[in-house]
Structures are given as structure tokens and as C-alpha cells.
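Good morning C.,

I know you're traveling, so I'll keep this short. The sequence:
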Amino acid sequence: MSLAQPSGQARPAGEALGPPAHPVLRIAREEWRWLRRDRVAVLGLVLLLLLAAVAIVHAAAQRDALAAERARRQGQVDQAFEASPDRHPHRMVHYGHFVFRPLNPLAAFDPGVDAQTGHTLFLEGHRQNSANFSEVRQSSLLLRFGQLTPAFVLQVLAPLLLVFAGHATLAREREAGTLRVLLAQGVRPRQIVAGKLLALAGLAAVVLLPALLALAWIAGTTPAPAALAATLAGGYALWLALWVLGTVCVSAWLKQARSALVVLLAAWAVGVVLLPRLAAELASAALPLPTRVETDIAIARELAALGDSHNPDDPHFAAFRARLLAQHGVARVQDLPLNYKGLVAMEGERLTSGLFVRHADAGFARQQAQLDWVDRAALLSPLLALRRLSMATAGTDLAAYRSFLEQGERHRYALVQSLNRLQAEKLTLAGDRSSRDDRIGAAHWHDLAVFRFEATPPAQALRTAAPAAAVLLLWLAGLGSALALATRRIGKVMP
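The C-alpha cells, ready to paste straight into the viewer:
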């Protein structure tokens, strides 16, 4: 709203504007007064704040419940593993163990890919299993269309409120004729635009306030690093600033408020709804991932080529046996100081684990290539950059999921090799006739299967988020330049 009457009618030309030192603040105050009288803007703000509050409370409660449940389950399986009776070590290799992915405290704000990825790994010998029990597979189809989280409210719904509240900021002044009056009274175009920006930025600050309070609470009451919470808040502040600038910019360029609303709604539909989905689909089509069946077949073929530890005439294990005999200066495996069966099990696990890691790395490299493809589309839709920044700082992106799988694989390998080493050291070849009959004491299982997950260091997460932040700043600079051009010609666009 201008310095004209709130009804949209112009003030008399000779009426003073008041103290000329603060025209920006007076314009912003008049705009806020107009917004308070706009029922759509007030109702939209109330509804958005209510949704944000519900999303914050629900997400925090869900995150705490999931974290507690996973910790309880982890304690149960750890206790069950240690409570196993006296057994042959190789039976414990196949008995296996479960590990659960701990939740990052900031996952309450943005769950990222956690709903689509599994959180439970079953660790066993000779196999590398996938994470299971994703929320999407266990929940209704509605979960696939988005969860009500603080991130979702700010990413998708908050821009709509800014569009409806601010699309007419300058176009309305043209239609009412008050823009000409302001310019005639000596108010500069940049002061008018600055006042409109300040008013809409105030509305954006109110929208962002619940999220800022939630992030401050998370940083103060959980181990979440304050730097990551601050970066997360800064990313969403940039996102809303983009919509404030874009909304005022479109309103400055177009003559009619209706036209500005249509253009802004189209920008929201394309940039927030269409392009993110389209970019993911195009990346999947351009760089398709092999199916689980195809991967299993490829692994089985390569395993067969590596060697068969159960075949005494297998070339690889025959050479392995010859090296062992020569190393210890004996002629028979029975004369080795260690149980040959346990040594063969260790060698077989080394070969298969190396193969599993190579295939896992290839799969993640393919997924990273897809993600890089989507990142390039952020130049067309800044929401993609915001999501990348948000998930990286919240510890819920692909890199964090990969870290869990890789740490789980390293733990699996160490666990299996520890059990194989027990077979080699605690059992003799002559006595190791059957895994049913030959056993070692249950005390050997204590503290063997404890999994200690290490979250991504904050510095690494910030480095991952830096390119996305740069894209958001680039968009901010571009919109700022467009608004500067519109400001310089604002006096010429008047009817």
C-alpha cells in the first residue's frame, strides 16, 4: 500500500507525506495495514502458522518415538546376540545380527530420504543385505506424496502465501493511480520498492519464526550442532527471500494485479511442483539403476569366478593353501598352527566382501550421477538447491544414508572375521568336524556385535551444502537485478 488512503483512493496532491526521512517505513506501514485488512492474507497466515505448529510438534514427536524404538530394538538384538549359548563360531556367522540406523536430531525438521530408505540392516556372513523397513513401504500411499513436516510447509506452502499476499503490491498502486501520486510527491521509485519489500519480508519473517524457534530448541536440547541448525535456518531464510523478491519483482513489471498473480502461480507450479519431479524422472531415465535381480546375478557370476572355498581343487584356494604351507614350512594343512577351515573362511569372506563393496560403490556412484544431474536442474528450480542444502544439514540425504550402509558393512566384515578368527584359533582342524558338535564358550560373543554409528562431521555436511547455498545466492542476485531494472523503469510503466 502506498502513502495514499488504505482504501486505495489517492490522497490530495497537496497533502504532506509527513517526515521525509522515513518514506520506506511509512510505505511499509501502510502495506502492513492493507495486509491486516485483507481477509485472504490474514486467514492464509493463520492457517500456515497452524500447519507449521502442527508439523513441528508432530515431526518432533515422531522423531523421538522412532529414535526410542530403534534404540530399544538395538538393545534387544545386542542382548540376544550376547545371550547366545555355546556354539560353533561359524554358526554364529550365519546367526547374524541386526543394526538400526540412529536418527539425526535435525531429521525432525527435514526427514529427507529417510522415509524412502530402510533403517535396519541384517548382518551375516557371505552376504551384504540391503536396508529394510522404509516408512513408504509400511505406510499408506499418501506418504509418497509428501509428509507434513516443517520443511514441507516452508518449501511448498509458504511461497503460496507470499504470492497471494504480495502479488498486487505495486500493480495495485498502478491500478488505483496512487503510484503517480507518490512519484509526484517526490518519493523515489527505489523507496517505494524498498517499502513494499520490507512489508512482505515482515510477513515472511512471521512465517519463518516457528521454524526458527524449533531449530533453536533442537540445537539447545539435543546433540545437533548449532552450525548445522543455523545453516538450515539460513537456507530457508534465503528461500523465502527469493519469493519476496520475485513477488515484488513481478508486481513491478506487470501492470495488472491479476496478471501478476497468474504469472506467480505459474512460477510456483512449475518451480515447486513440476520441475523437481520432472528432474528426478529425467535423471532416472538418463542414468537408470540396475535392478536388485540384475545386481544379484552379476554378483553370483563374479563369485563363481573368484573361487569356491568348499572345493579343494579350486585354483584360487589351492594357491592359497600352498602359500600357507610354504609360509609355515609344513607339508599338510593338519600341521598348520591354526585351524585351516577358519583360515579358508577368512579368505573367502575377504574375497566376497571386496566384491560386495565394489558393487555397492558402483551403485552409489550411479546414484550420485543422478543426483548431480538433478543438481544442475537447480538453475531452473531453486527448490532443488534448497532441498539439497536442507537434507545435507539435517543429515538425511543420500550421503548420510550411504555412510550408514558403509559403516554397517565395515561392522559386518569385522564381526564375521572375528568369528572366523575364533574358529581358526579356538578350534583345531582335527576337532572341527561339525558346526553342531564343536563349540566355544558364550563369553566370546560379549561386546563383539556392538555397532557404534558415527554421524557425518558438521564440516563435511557444510561442504556438501555449500554448492546449494551458492545456487540460492545466485538466484537471489538474479532476482535482485531484475527488480533493480523494474525499479528504474517504474515511473515509465504507469498508465
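Safe travels,
E.
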